[in-house]
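This follows on from our talk about sequence and fold. Please put the record directly below this note.
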Amino acid sequence: MVKIKNNIRFAALLSSGIDSLGTGSFVSVSTIFFATYSHVSPSIIGLGLTLSAISGTIASLPVAYLADKYGKLKIFSLSYILRAIGMLGWLFVSGNNGYLVYMTLFGIIDRSAGSLTKSLIIAPLSHKEATVLLGDMALPSNVGYGIGAGISSLATVAHTGLQPIIIINSMSFIVVVFVYITALKGTNVSAAKIKTSSLTSLSVIKSSIFNRTRFNLMIENFLFSFHRTLLNVYIPLLIVIHFKAFTWLSPLVFVINTITIALLQGITNKWAYENYRYNKLWISSGLLLSISFILIALIPKFNLHLLLIIVFIAIVVAQILAELFSSAAISVYMTIYSRNKFLATDLSAINLGGQLQNILGPMIFSSSAVSSSGILAITMTFLTVGASVHVALDLRNNKRGDLNSESVKQ
C-alpha cells in the first residue's frame, strides 16, 4: 500500500510538471500562433476561447461519468491521447470559421481533463493525503509552466517557428499518460466502478449536481474563484488605465503570485486539513474577494495617486491570499464531498463553478475596469458576502457532512 501511495505521489508531481510545461509552452504564444500561423482575426480569438470554455463545461460531467462507468485510468488515457492528436490538428486549421469550429470541438476534450486527473490522484489516497498532494502539485506545475513559457520565448527570439511548440505540447500529453499508466498499474482506479445500464447516467449526474452540499459548493466555487481573472484580467487593465508608465507591474504581479502559490500552497493545504481550518479559509477567501470588490467599486472615486497605489497593493495581496485559501479549502471539499463510487462525476460537478467563472470572469472584470459606476463590483460584493455568511450558517447548523453513504436511484 505504501508503494502504491509513493507511486501515485511521484506520478502526480512529475506529470503535473510535464503537463504544465507543455501547456505553458503553447498558451504563452497561442494568440501569436492563431493570428500568424492560423490567420485568425485578433477580434475572433477571444470568442473562440469562450466557445471552448462553454463546450468544455458542458462536456465535463458526461466525460467524468464515463470515467466512473468504464474506468478512470482508461478514460483519462483516452482523453489525453485525444488531446495530443487534437493539438497536432492545430497545424492544419486556418481561417476564422475553421478556428471557431475546431476550438469548440477541442474544448470538449481539453477542458474536461482536470477532474479526471484529480480522480486518479484522490481515489487510492486518504482525504488528508490527497489534499496535501493536490497542494504540493502547485510547485512542479508552476515551475513547468515557467519552463514552457521560457522555451516558447526562445523559439520566438530564434525565429524557429511555432510548429515545434505544438509538437512539444502534444508529446507532453503522451508522456503524462505513460507516467500514470506505469504508476497506477494494478491499482483499483483502473477498474470501472459503475456496473449499471447507461440509463443510470442521468440519475448519477443529477445526484452529483443537485445534492444540497455539492450544489452549494458549486455556487461558492464560482464566486470564490474570481481571484483568477481578477489577477489575470483586472490588474493588467488597472495598470494600463491608471499606471501607464509602470506596465512592468503586470508581469511582476504575475511572477509574485506564481512564486507564492508554488512555495506555499502545499503547506497551506496541509495546515488547512487540521482542525477543520479549511472551513475558515473558505469563508476568508470569500471575504477577501468582497473587500477587493469594494475597493474596485471605489477606485473611480480616487483622485490621489497615493491612494490608488495603496488600493492596488491591497487588491493584489488580497487576491494572492484568496487563491491560497480557496485552493486549499476546495481541495479538502473535493475529497470529502465526492462519493467513492462516483468520484470523477462528483469532482466535475463541484468544479463546474470554477469553469463558469472562467467564462464570465473576464467579461465582469473587463467591464469593471472601464466602468465609473461600480455597479458590477457592488453586486459582486453582496454576492460574495452573502455566500460567505451562508457557509458560516451552514457550518453552524452542521448541514455539511460525509456524503459517501449517499445513494442514487438506479
The two ends are 33 Å apart (CA to CA). The chain has two domains: 2-193, 208-396. Confidence is low (pLDDT under 50) at residues 402-410.
